[in-house]
Design a protein that fits this description.
By secondary structure, this protein is mostly helical. It has one domain (17-64). It has one helix at residues 2-60. The longest helix is centred in the middle third of the chain and has 59 residues, at 2-60. The termini are far apart.
Amino acid sequence: MDAEITRLESQLEQFIALFETGKTELRSLRTRVATLEAENHRLAGKLDVAIAKLESVLVKLPEA
């Protein structure tokens, strides 16, 4: 009986350790996603500016 309880305690400790590791990894991934979303937003803004400038130049070109 004691051996079974000891085994279950060990399994529970492993489960808790895995759970904590998973929580830490999830927190890290959420931070990374937020960072990448912000970078994506910044780059999309730069792309919009570049497209507007290119369109402005194209309008000024004489037709061939």
